Amino acid sequence: GLQVLKIRQGSLKQADIKVLRLDGSVQTFENQVNTTQQNLDSTAKTLESSRLEVEQRVREYEKNTAYTLSLTLKQGEPCPVCGSPDHPSPAVHVDENGGEGQQERLEAARQKLEEHEKAFKEIEKKLLIAQEKLHAEKLQRDQAWQEKEAMFNQLRAEKDKLPQEYRDMELEQLEAVLETMKASFLEKQRSLEDWE
To answer: What are the backbone angles phi and psi of residue 69, rounded to the nearest 5°?
Structure first.
């Protein structure tokens, strides 16, 4: 009777607390996933910028290498690259520094690209972990929600055993009604005993 209802209601309150806790946890993981995704997007832009810088440095280095080779060309002598004895349009000087430091700038750009690739992979890994944690927490929350629903249905089934006028009462109200009925019964029983 009443004890079963109290137990079911207590279980339902515990289940409700669990669902609320898991909802908060899911929200925390969703925020973590969103923040990590934004960080990944920002790092992807930086990575692309580093790739473009390396490509630019490679082109500059190649142009300077062609210019350096063109300085050694002599009309009638074969080109060390293509073998032609004619050199109608040799490469022209494009770097104001005369090519000095180009190799170092290219290596620095490659090093920076490597660091950005490493950072991108780390953030990508963190994002995957956060997404997995979020997924697991959502599964736990959904399971807790189903358990809560089952407990609610059990409580409802117990309350449905009561007479219609008592079904929608809270347990405290129901307890008060039962105490009043019990007191009334005891009073009538005493009256009956006194009458006999």
So the answer is: -65, -40
